[in-house]
Write a structure and sequence with these properties.
about 180 residues, about 0% strand
Length: about 180
Amino acid sequence: MSSNISIEKLPYNIQSNKISQLVFLANIIGIRKELLINAGQKEIDAICATILYRHLPQAQRNYAMQLIRSVNNRPLQGKLIENVLLTTFVNPQWGIWSLTNKELESDQEFHQLLDNLASYIGISASFMGVKDIYEAFRKNKKLGRAGLVLLVIFGAVAFNKSELNKVNKELKNRSVVLTSELYK
């Protein structure tokens, strides 16, 4: 039953040292290092279960949740359950680590297309553009319609760039492209 829930099934090149594994995995899914005090193999297995959860069939999801609930550190257990629920039942994008390679590549393609389009038409979230909006606001004591539109455009471009950077970072973290059925 547990064959699909192990560190070897993750799409990352992870060191064999348990402390390095914990730190790496915690960094990937956004767990504060303070939650890893006295952590060991049980916590490594639970984090692996969290990462793989949305790709598992129901029977293995039950086993994965047992692994997560076996963690004695209640705040860590709560964070792992929260990550599972958010990425499986709310929005997988909230845990980019839960996406398959194909989903990541699709996201990368989409955000790169938007970034290229914004560059092509000359829109960027440049500091100078934001500075101009600020100066106009300071001078007129209000943000005009044009300033508001520019601010929204700059925000959208900056958000897209941020998402593209997140996807690129995750793809870089996945230095190993596994052939596992879970991540195809």
